[in-house]
Design goal:
This protein is mainly beta. It is 7% helix and 41% strand. It has a domain of 52 residues. It has a two-stranded antiparallel sheet. The structure holds zinc ion (ZN).
Length: 83
Amino acid sequence: MRRIRRPVGEPLGKISCPRCGNSTRFVEQLESVLVTTTYLQNDDGSFTPLEQNSDAEGELSFLCGECGYDMTPFHGHFREMVF
Ligand SMILES: [Zn+2]
């Protein structure tokens, strides 16, 4: 299990990029997503989408939205703070 790093910036609990200081824009990146869509073929040969499932595969990354600095150790904290 990946260790969750707690931000120590001011105000307490806010993440900021150690490289550029950005504390407002962040990016969550998924390496690959498998999207499966089920279609129903109609009598006239056309197709109607029924449902779509997305399965996340691979590593999740958490990046600075300004300079792209890898802040993945903070991802656990980020997830807890998404409302
Ligand atoms: Zn940055």
